[in-house]
Specification:
Layout (H helix, E strand, L loop, with lengths): L2 H8 L4 H19 L3 H9 L9 H13 L1 H8 L12 H16 L5 H15 L4 H18 L1
Helix pairs in contact: 2-4, 2-6, 5-6, 6-7, 6-8, 7-8
């Protein structure tokens, strides 16, 4: 795949980028409504965007992040400048995705994870939230390298 084809795929909501975009929305709903994995997956599957994403990766991340939200949140606490309950649900979802990928998805380059998280924050988060996401995930990456 050429660089221009990869760039087009990356910014068109397809593949893993699309998986992460849909995942932010699912994790937001999870935080607000406490929906379970099956319910969130069923709802995602009826969306037109679902056809374009990397479905396997979406399901893998959704299931594993939902199983580990407490551990991921506990891991993030030392890097936060506020109480975890004060983190916006969109930002929390992005932090869960990014930290899970940094900690457990060895096949995904850290620069890709960081860039994707920043783009998610720019798309879904509040103004300037991408800087906050970047700082926290940078700290997670440095901590992972130390251990």
């Amino acid at each position: 795949m050429t660089q221009s084809e990869e760039k087009e795929k990356r910014f068109s909501g397809k593949g893993r980028t699309g998986s992460r975009e849909l995942l932010v929305q699912a994790l937001y709903q999870y935080q607000l409504n406490a929906d379970d994995f099956k319910s969130l997956l069923k709802q995602a599957k009826i969306l037109k965007e679902y056809k374009r994403i990397d479905k396997e990766y979406f399901q893998f991340l959704l299931e594993n992040i939902m199983k580990n939200t407490n551990q991921l949140s506990d891991y993030l606490i030392p890097f936060l400048d506020r109480k975890i309950k004060q983190i916006d649900p969109i930002e929390m979802g992005i932090l869960w995705i990014g930290s899970y990928e940094i900690l457990y998805c060895e096949d995904v380059p850290k620069t890709v994870i960081m860039n994707e998280a920043i783009e998610l924050a720019k798309t879904f988060g509040a103004d300037g939230s991408f800087q906050y996401i970047n700082a926290i995930l940078d700290a997670v990456t440095k901590d992972k390298v130390k251990s």
